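$ ./design --mode recover --in tokens.txt
reading tokens...
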């Protein structure tokens, strides 16, 4: 499966891509941990995940991969 890195270097691109901050990881276009509608803001910023860390958890990544494969999690 190919991995694409997308450089988001300005606010307009961040808005266009609905970029909630760095790092954002998407599988088949779906965010591994989508922000809620109440907290969704887009732009050039650092991102925190639900557990308060700056990266998605291994468990969250595995669940997102399984969803993308069409398997139940």
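writing sequence...
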């Amino acid at each position: 499966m190919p991995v694409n890195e997308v450089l988001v270097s300005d606010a307009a691109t961040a808005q266009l891509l609905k970029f909630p901050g760095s790092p954002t990881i998407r599988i088949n276009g779906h965010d591994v941990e989508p922000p809620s509608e109440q907290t969704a803001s887009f732009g050039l910023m650092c991102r925190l995940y639900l557990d308060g860390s700056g990266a998605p958890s291994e468990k969250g990544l595995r669940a997102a991969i399984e969803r993308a494969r069409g398997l139940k999690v």
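exit 0
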